[in-house]
Amino acid sequence: MLRDPVTATDNGGDPITLDHLMGEGEWKSASDQAENIPEGVLELIKEKARVAFCEMRPAGPLQPYDEILQGPTEPFVAFVERLTAAIEQQVARVGAREEVLEEMAMRNANEESREAILRIPKAPGEHPTLDEMLKAVSAMAANTRAQTLQRKKPAVPKVAAATHQERTPNQPRPVKKTPIDRPCFLCGQKGHWSSQCPKRAEFNAFLKKGGGGMEGTSNAQKN
Asked: This protein's superkingdom (predicted)?
């Protein structure tokens, strides 16, 4: 880096030092780094940091990436993050990592995620990208949650629904019975109320006399 004129000095012409590279001393400020350290130097720092991170090894035994499986309730995103970290540490060729990640994400996904991935429309011989997998699994998970909430909603009792039902403008009002429909309780004939019955006077006279042969007495007793 110091041999390359593009990366040997900062924008002020001073030689690049460890303080430049590590963000220490007068280079702790991110704004100073962005303003005075050449872009080529910053890109080189980023690449070296990435390589160092990928070469880190966990304290315990290293799990092969092809043995990393998505848990039954593990979010697909969390599974992909675990898989990505393992592949970056175990696959040396950077250009091959994306292809390996897509293959392992589809192969080692749980049943629900794999079902969503297999529904992605693809031509024969084509495989879904990681972005397409993430979107498909996320959409299926959202749909499953919505269906679960719908099933948990309490049903409205039919009696309560009928009680609160409002009459529409065109709905006919309840039909009230008229003298034509209901028989007179004095004579048993339809077409008039008992107060208008032709035998009303005859019935009243019968009551005053305390009973005795009146035509229609049997009908009056029945009603």
From this structure: Eukaryota
